[in-house]
Amino acid sequence: MKKTIIAAIVSASLALAAPPSFAGSVAGFGGSTEITQLANNIELVQSYLQQVQSYATQLQQYQNMIQNTLNIPAQVWGSIEGELMGVASVVQQGQALAYSATNIATQFENTFKGFTFTGTDFKKEYRDLSRKTMDTLKGSLMAANMQSNQFATEEMTLKQLRTMSQSATGQMQAIQVGSQIAEQQVQQLQKLRQLMMAQLNQQNTYMAGQEQKEATRKVATDRAFDVGDPTTNTHKGFKGGWK
């Protein structure tokens, strides 16, 4: 467009600058009017060229504005909600005490009663406690495994973001790529927090289980040797060799 406008202006100016009487007037040294006209035309052409340059600059500015406001055709966002929910679900294995359970406080109190014991089947108590502890440890391990399997998908997402970052045109696309990268960083922090919760879950369950086993063993021992009045030679809980 710029070249076309300049060519049109130059052609029109040359036509005005060279009338038929110009050659004769110059040959007879009487062409001062024509020379003045030629100078005016040249000045006019220069003015037109300056206007054309101004228009070209404005067009370039408009083009830059349009380019800077272009959106990325297909933006990349991770599926963090589904992934976090999946891990929160997998830690609830069997009888495990999971941090994601809605009634975790009640479950903990029912499982780890401390020195208080109202039942009589110590073997069942040990078995249930061992099962809860093992299920909790298994759930935490599966949570780590699930996040490990997500590495491939995450790497594909990061590869897309790297490509988009290299091919981004304009400020808007650069900002959008930066926003997506920042969002991925937040997702990774959320996953790290989830793994830390799973680790804390299994550590606390294991330590509480060890404490409960010791308390149950102590209660069982005390109950077995809980003797009554020595003068009657009777025992409340422990039965020796007599009937």
Radius of gyration: 44 Å
Measured by DSSP, the beta-strand proportion falls in: under 5%
Number of helical runs?
A: 8
- By helix and strand content, what is the structural category? mainly alpha
The number of strands is 0
- List unreliable stretches of 5+ residues: 20-30, 238-243
Q: Based on CA inertia axes, which overall geometry fits? A: rod-shaped
Major pleated sheet: none
Span of the ends, CA to CA: 117 Å
Describe the structure in your own words.
By secondary structure, the chain is mainly α. The protein has 2 domains: 67 residues; 148 residues, no CATH class. It is built from 8 helices and no strands. Helix 1 runs antiparallel to helix 3, helix 4 packs antiparallel against helix 6 and helix 6 runs antiparallel to helix 8. The chain is rod-shaped, with a radius of gyration of 44 Å. 12% of the residues are buried.
Topology:
Layout: H1 2-17, H2 22-27, H3 32-68, H4 80-90, H5 104-111, H6 122-149, H7 151-167, H8 170-224
Brief summary of the model shown:
With 243 residues, the chain is an all-alpha fold. The chain has eight helices and no strands.
Name some characteristics of this structure.
mainly alpha, 2 domains, rod-shaped, 8 helices, 0% strand, 243 residues
